[in-house]
């Protein structure tokens, strides 16, 4: 059976070698000026090095240019995209059509991955962006297993699905943590909040804890649980999903490395020896449970959850 | 006003500058009644929701028959009707879309407000007479993306709520396309389309109309330290909250007109007819007064006071002049009661006797201080005298919703004028 790509979001250039050895096939890197919610911050030098390191191991690197842009940065995109092309990236990840315009101008041959996160919800729209230059669509994490498989059946572009880690629930342009601290009169004490990645919103009614952080793109609120479907990969493999993503954001590099190894094992077994995968998949899930920080329960996201409207 | 003169926008008539390009005033209409009121009070266009594909599952929402009636009504005033079809569709929503869009075209709808390219492309194929307007759900916030949608053949784009006036200026300069922007009402605190709090918290899909407004709830903020979770608030602090003040750009209307913005949009399909009538009539006056004599324009206190009469949240200019600060956030209390209650809707007026026939919309009784307003009259206040029911029986109070009441007014009133009552 065809094996999907195992895509991870590394924290630093130094992590790439280890993650490649652990079984990652591809990496998403970038900087917050252009990309959204990256596990690590990669300067231009870092991006060039990441690409060099990954390519030496036969792995791919995609550069995230998927922020929601205002005029100021939209005007810089040609220059940034020319740099990304020069650095040898394998694809650019975009959401804002401004990037499409800039790629047409600055790097018309550059492969594009369409990733707006929440709005990639049907196959028609995936194919729409395909006709405008995308070779891959990254699906919304709010889709069910059934919906994902139906998208894949009709898709003319490659399909990427997140199989592990936290997901973004909310992005505001406003610095909402900063506003709260200012309101409390302690803005000075917490000046370094922009680097703080350890804050949680507690929702008493649901007893959920939502990670929250601020960066150049505003305020981000993340899911209370980490998706983990290491024991539910068979259907996605059978459907021929092209890429499985593990997001390392707000987890430690050590955690990401161990999780990557376990998914590598799961994917290989599931593709090569499905009976054996069935036998050990619960064990793989237990191993991940052992790695989880106390405040991060696992769940299966929306793969098996119905939403109404 | 110190705005730079733009020939496309103003012209000189008899030595005086007047505005040649008046923007559209676009109002929400959750029901057929609200549609009629919005247009009667001065909206140039309204936007409504259909039974499917829109983002307000709880707003009244129109059947195709009601849409036809709305379009007929609007035509008499030269007004337009747009339909919000701005969900992000899932596969299961694809079936039925073509018929739905054909139905809108047959109903005479001028345009649809859309976010998902599925609906954009399907509309152009099966209902080509219908204009396609890009919804704010696409969070469109830069001129190159505006250029993209122009090249895709869209008729109009609605900007992200995060767009500043300077950004609008650059968009207008660089791209020749109609631009619509919000001027008044409640706003998402998140980038529209990029919030799935409802999906996670209540299993309701926010991008298909299921938003449960969890951004208006309170949360406790903690930091995760080596020795456990530390509260980042003290006993006396209000909890962490994200609620923004509502948007209000009444004082920036001159600037928006000079920028050449094509459509000025009021939020609120769930709001009452009293709210819609009040807000629309104020903005109608501001736009008309400015356009007639922009160089001698001054905002009037009475217009600002009028808006307060239906405001159920403090308001601010949001992103219009740059990223808003802490003063535009609400902590502790997320709303307030409007200063006035909608008390009655005028059904008829008898000139000989000075008697109004009115439909009760809130409790009132003889002796109450009330105010009448409407497009044909200047606001006036009076005390309610003796009141009668339809059968001529004297009443001690108007207690029942929609009850028909008669009493004498101090000045003439007209059908669809409204009566409001100040709250202590």
UniProtKB/TrEMBL annotation, chain A:
This is Peptidase, U32 family small subunit. PANTHER family: PEPTIDASE U32 FAMILY (PTHR30217), TRNA HYDROXYLATION PROTEIN P2 (PTHR30217:SF7). It comes from Bacillus badius. InterPro entries: Peptidase_U32 (IPR001539), RNA/ubiquinone_mod_enzymes (IPR051454).
UniProtKB/TrEMBL annotation, chain B:
Residues 339-420 form the Peptidase family U32 C-terminal domain. It comes from the Bacteria. PROSITE patterns: PEPTIDASE_U32 (PS01276). The keyword Cell membrane does not apply. Keywords: Hydrolase, Protease. Belongs to the peptidase U32 family. InterPro entries: Peptidase_U32 (IPR001539), Peptidase_U32_C (IPR032525), RNA/ubiquinone_mod_enzymes (IPR051454). Coiled coil: none annotated. Pfam families: Peptidase_U32, Peptidase_U32_C. This is Peptidase, U32 family large subunit. The keyword Glycosyltransferase does not apply.
């Amino acid at each position: 059976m065809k094996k999907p790509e195992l895509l991870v979001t590394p924290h630093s250039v130094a992590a790439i070698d280890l993650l490649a050895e652990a079984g990652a096939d591809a990496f998403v890197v970038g900087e917050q000026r252009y990309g959204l919610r990256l596990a690590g911050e990669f300067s231009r030098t870092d991006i060039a090095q990441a690409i060099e390191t990954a390519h030496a191991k036969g792995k791919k690197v995609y550069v995230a240019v998927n922020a929601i842009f205002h005029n100021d940065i939209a005007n810089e995109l040609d220059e940034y995209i020319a740099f990304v092309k020069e650095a040898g990236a394998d694809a650019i990840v975009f959401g804002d059509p401004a990037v499409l315009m800039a790629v047409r101008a600055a790097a018309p041959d550059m492969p594009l991955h369409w990733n707006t996160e929440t709005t990639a919800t049907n196959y028609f729209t995936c194919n729409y962006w395909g006709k405008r230059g995308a070779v891959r669509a990254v699906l919304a994490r709010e889709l069910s297993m059934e919906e994902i498989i139906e998208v894949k059946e009709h898709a003319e572009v490659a399909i990427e699905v997140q199989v592990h880690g936290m997901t973004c629930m909310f992005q505001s342009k406003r610095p909402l943590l900063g506003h709260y601290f200012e309101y409390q009169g302690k803005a000075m004490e917490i000046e370094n909040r922009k680097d703080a990645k350890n804050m949680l919103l507690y929702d008493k009614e649901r007893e959920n804890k939502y990670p929250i952080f601020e960066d150049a793109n505003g305020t981000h609120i993340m899911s209370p649980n980490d998706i983990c479907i290491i024991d539910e990969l068979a259907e996605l493999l059978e459907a021929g999903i092209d890429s499985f993503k593990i997001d390392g954001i707000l987890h430690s590099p050590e955690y990401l490395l161990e999780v990557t190894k376990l998914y590598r094992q799961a994917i290989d077994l599931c593709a090569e020896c499905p009976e054996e995968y069935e036998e050990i998949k619960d064990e793989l899930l237990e191993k991940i449970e052992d790695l989880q920080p106390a405040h991060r329960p696992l769940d299966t996201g929306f793969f098996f959850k119905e939403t109404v409207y | 006003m110190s705005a730079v003169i733009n020939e496309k926008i103003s012209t000189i008539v008899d030595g005086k500058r007047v505005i040649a390009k008046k923007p559209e005033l676009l109002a929400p209409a959750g029901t057929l009644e609200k549609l009629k009121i919005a247009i009667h009070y001065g909206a140039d266009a309204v936007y409504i929701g259909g039974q499917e594909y829109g983002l307000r599952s709880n707003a009244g929402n129109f059947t195709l028959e009601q849409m036809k009636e709305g379009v007929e009504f609007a035509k008499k005033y030269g007004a337009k009707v747009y339909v919000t079809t701005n969900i992000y569709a899932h596969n299961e929503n694809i079936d039925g879309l073509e018929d739905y869009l054909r139905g809108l075209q047959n109903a005479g709808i001028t345009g649809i407000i859309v976010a998902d390219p599925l609906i954009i492309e399907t509309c152009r194929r099966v209902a080509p007479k219908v204009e396609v307007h890009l919804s704010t759900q696409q969070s469109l916030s830069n001129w190159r993306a505006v250029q993209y949608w122009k090249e895709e053949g869209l008729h109009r784009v609605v900007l992200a709520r995060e767009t500043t006036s300077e950004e609008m200026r650059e968009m207008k300069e660089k791209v020749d396309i109609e631009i619509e922007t919000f001027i008044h009402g409640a706003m998402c605190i998140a980038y529209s389309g990029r919030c799935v709090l409802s999906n996670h918290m209540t299993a309701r899909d926010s991008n298909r109309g299921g938003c449960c407004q969890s951004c208006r709830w309170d949360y406790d903020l903690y930091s995760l330290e080596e020795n456990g979770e530390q509260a980042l608030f003290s006993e006396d602090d209000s909890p962490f909250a994200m609620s923004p003040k509502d948007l209000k750009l009444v004082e920036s209307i001159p600037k928006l007109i000079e920028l050449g913005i094509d459509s000025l949009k009021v939020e609120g399909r769930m709001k009452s007819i009293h709210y819609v009538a009040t807000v629309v009539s104020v903005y109608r006056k501001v736009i008309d007064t400015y356009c007639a004599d922009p160089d001698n324009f001054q905002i009037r206190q009475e217009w600002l006071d009028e808006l307060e009469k239906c405001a159920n949240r403090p308001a601010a200019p949001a992103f219009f002049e740059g990223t808003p600060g802490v003063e535009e956030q609400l902590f502790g209390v997320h709303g307030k009661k409007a200063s006035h209650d909608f008390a009655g809707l005028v059904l008829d007026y008898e000139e000989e006797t000075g008697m109004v026939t009115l439909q009760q919309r809130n409790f009132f009784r003889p002796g109450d201080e009330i105010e009448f307003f409407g497009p044909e009259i200047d606001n006036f206040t009076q005390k309610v005298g003796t009141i009668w029911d339809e059968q001529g029986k004297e009443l001690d109070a108007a207690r029942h919703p929609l009850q028909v009441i008669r009493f004498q007014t101090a000045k003439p009133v007209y059908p669809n004028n409204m009566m409001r009552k100040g709250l202590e």
